[in-house]
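The protein record quoted in full:
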Amino acid sequence: MLSRNAEDDGRLDRLGEKGTFQGAALPAEEKEPLPKGLETLEVTMKLAKSLLLGTVAGLAAAAGAQAADLPMRKAAPVEYVRVCSVHGAGFFYIPGSDTCIKIGGRVRAEYRYLEPTGSWGTTSTLRVSPDGRVFSVPSSVFNPGRRSDATGFRARGRINVDARTATEWGTLRAFVQVDVTADTGNYRGIGRNGVGPAGDDTSVALDKAFIQWAGITAGRISSFFDFYATALNFGSGYMASLGSDNGSVNVLAYTATFGNGFSATIGFEDRSAVVRPVVVGAADVNVLAGQRMPSIVGNIRVDQGWGSAQLSGVVQQLNTSVPNTDGGRIDTEYGYAIQAGVRFNLPMLAAGDALWLQAAYADGAVGRLGLGATTAFAGLAGTAVDGAIVDGNIKRTKGWGVTAALLHYWTPSVRQAVFGNYTAVDYSGRVIDAYSDGGVATLNDFKIWTVGTNVIWSPVQAFDIGVEVLYQKLDPKGRVGLPTGVSKSSVDIWEARIRFQRDF
């Protein structure tokens, strides 16, 4: 037993010499003898350590040998995202395909002040009987006043995806843009119409979704009738737009390019967002019949180094479900609008400076002037409709407008836009006479003046902080009925906005 312990002691000492154990052993002559019990315990512990080390070493050797016998599997190559510079900055190839994609978006925070005025009153709404007789129906209304919100808050998030693939027929493009908006205060319709405080109004809007290929555009996109001077202002949900700005519409169009920046487009557009109702007395009486044919839109355009120019036109159908005086169907009318716009680049003033000028005329298509079914003075005056029924026939409404806008960069990070618009709406005398009650016209000629300016600071790239002020004046011709039951010669509105916007 002692001899075996001695043998083990020698083996452990040799392992220690190889560095398996830390610390050096004392020379034999300097070791103090241990009691017999402790000596046996020491030998036992050393033996256990030796067995453990041997087992670990054996397992490691076996694992190494087994691994050497296994076939080696080659790692799959990693496909890194590649930059796609063919279609511009920000595009990259989708791994495993020849399609380039660009992902972007926007976050916007906006705050508005708009002083409301008004009170309770009565108004007369005109109706038409089946036999074509116009009669008056009195009703109580509330014109925005102290029960309306003077301030409003808006938060909007936007995501857009642009995918492009080169084909033998040209670039195949698909674009999607989605907006999610949360409105409070006077950004809500009910918040500015005298019903008192209201909660959040959250909405999701598919602003754009279209495919472009070989000159074809199919889907939802900005109207090909529009010119884009309105892009300079913050936009307004309350005040009338600056010139034609019909937003996004569903279209099917074809664009032919002729070189040197010249192009021409012809297409069909859904009329729902731009056709103003054919009415009987008031804008909320919509007697516009179902759509039988879409609006036909066309333009001729040039884009060159000096700027851009566009001549556009539209023809749209007006039909109604109201019977004529004989009980038959009222004949369909066709309205139209034309517009010319030009943009001049002004690099001699500062990089990025530009001047916009545009003018439009409409006959039975006043919605193409940037006017809604009612103007910014909703509930005050200034109803704008494409037509009205008189003596069993549709009488088209005429209108025209001019817009000017100037963009100037004071510094590379500070820019200012100044813009203005004048729009006039003219009803025929027969319409005004037919839609009057007690000498006060429900439909009447009117003019709208709009001027405004904004200053935008971009402290860092793709981040804007801006403030905007707008003034608008409604100047009706003659007496115009207000919801309070009285008439007024003119109405003024001021609006101020602050915006924070981050694009990515």
